[in-house]
Amino acid sequence: MEKKKPFSEEVKTKCLLWSDRHCGVCGKSCGLDIEVHHIDPKEDNIQDNAIPVCYNCHAKLGRYIDSQPRGTKYKIQEIKKSRDQIYERYTSHLVPGLLPTIYPTSTEPSTYYLPQIGFAIAPVGQFIPVKATIVVKTFLGGKDLGKIGSKIPYYDGGIIWHLNPGLRFRGNFTIPKVCAESKEALQLELNITIIDPYEREHKLLPVCFTYVRKAEPNDGYWFLEPTSFAQLEQYVKKSNTD
Ligand SMILES: [Zn+2]
User: Fold this and answer.
1) What is the DSSP secondary-structure string of the chain?
2) Which has the minimum average pLDDT: 82-91, 149-158, 188-197, 233-242?
3) How confident is the model over 135-160, as a mean pLDDT?
4) Of 58, 105, 126, 162, which one has the fewest beta carbons inside 10 Å?
């Protein structure tokens, strides 16, 4: 059998930190008695293919014989999900709550009018400083107009945000001018990824903001839709044809 390339020190260290040295299969606290295993022997030695395991589980993962099936074999996706649950258990406390807002809202006016948009983010409570990336995408009449472009790429994932306790950020960005002139449905989708102090990425679920147009262009406002644009799309398309 071809010898597997070992994982780099960086990959191994992340495995151990993210799991707090717990087995990614059975969840046991392992201390020194832990190894980093290749989940898929055919795949590369990348982070996604690594799992911290106790000696017992390490032996079991390699022991199943397809020609003499007994019990239920560990599937690759299952092992990865089980590992991610363990990582989540030992890193989720590092992720602050966030309150992102797009202005104007129905209750809070703003000095920004389309195509300019106000944006605020406020981490909630006490937490260890974390990094984040923010991607905002514009959808007009169900059409993807892409990520927000700006001189400093705060809203297209190009720059790492630093979120410190007590820091409330208020800024603004501009969407394509056609969005202000059009009468079609206008949505912004917000994707936030938190990078914890151990460099683990926590992708928050995407949410959307829908614009409510009014007779007076400057009277419109945004409201939060607790779902992704992919899910909203069918309803947006329907309302465009109604
Ligand atoms: Zn185990």
Assistant:
1) -PPPPPPPHHHHHHHHHHHTTB-TTT--B-TTSEEEEESSTTS-SSGGGEEEEEHHHHHHHTT--TTS--S-PPPHHHHHHHHHHHHHHHHGGGSPEEEEEEESBSSS--S--TTEEEEEEEEESS---EEEEEEEEEEETTEEEEEPP-SS-TTBT-S-EEE-TT--EEEEEE--THHHH--S-EEEEEEEEEE-TT--EEEPPPEEEEEE--SSGGG-EEEEESS-HHHHHHHHHHHHH-
2) 233-242
3) 95
4) 126
Q: Structure pTM?
A: 0.88
In the reported structure, the alpha carbon of residue 86 is separated from the centroid of ligand 1 by a whole-number distance in angstroms of: 11
How far away, in angstroms, is 33 Cα from ligand 1 center? 10
CA of 3 to the centre of ligand 1 (A): 24
Distance 187 CA to ligand 1 centre (A): 46
Distance (angstroms) between ligand 1 centre and the Cα of 25 equals 5
Ligand 1 centroid distance, CA of 54 (Å): 4
C-alpha of residue 16 to centroid of ligand 1, in Å:
14
Q: Please, what are the domains in the chain?
A: 9-92 (no CATH), 95-241 (2.20.130.20)
CA of 61 to the centre of ligand 1 (A): 10
